[in-house]
């Protein structure tokens, strides 16, 4: 028997499609805080995500107010210390290591992309810089854009996703399912978001503010808040269809 769509299901599907399409990465936030009851409602929705054998092998750390400000300052300081390496200055990496300032993240967000995926990353980066009017050779403007991401784009909520290192790769998968549920619920509550992998480059700032259990690794940060009217938020990335593996004849 085939399933017949009921009128409510039809309306829900349309509403869901609109909600999913309306979520996008916001890169400039207003300072207005997200009310605690709104955050609580979003976190409550986040419980609805499935997880591997119901283990929920992830945790969130959420910073607001003075803690979020300290984190912004600490991440920008890490970024600025690492700049000579980003600029490929001779001996910069050795100096960073010798001074105890090497990136101490659990993973390496800066690691080279696989060859077949690199063009997609380059394409969105180029499109975003073009949207911002940043020329290819304008290193200062590019660095400032990267610095803004270390400030979590001034979002009132700076979040961190931690995954249980004993249940990989499923913990990372579950955290992704959880995070998208969180982002969609946030959007339904009028709250915008941006995932921030760049924050996983360093652990020190997070560890100075939160007691992260030893068996949890930092996989990404994220920002939550209300989009400002800065033109950066008019940028839309291309949304390619999910690739389907060709079935065998
Ligand atoms: C795990 C993860 C980490 C990300 N890290 C960053 C980041 O550090 N800085 C940034 O500006 N965008 C970051 N993004 C946003 C992506 O660039 C964005 O999702 C993609 O370009 C598609 O755009 P959309 O989210 O607006 O649909 C990240 C996305 C994901 C899923």
Automatic annotation (TrEMBL):
Record's keyword annotation contains Cytoplasm: no
Record flagged with keyword Ubl conjugation: no
Nitroreductase domain mapped to chain residues: 21-226
InterPro entries, alphabetized: Nitroreductase (IPR029479), Nitroreductase-like (IPR000415)
GO molecular function: oxidoreductase activity
Name of the protein in question: Nitroreductase
UniProt KW keywords: Flavoprotein, FMN, Oxidoreductase
CDD domains: PnbA_NfnB-like
Cofactor requirements of the protein: FMN
Signal peptide: none
Similarity comment text for this entry: Belongs to the nitroreductase family.
Lineage top rank: taxon: Bacteria
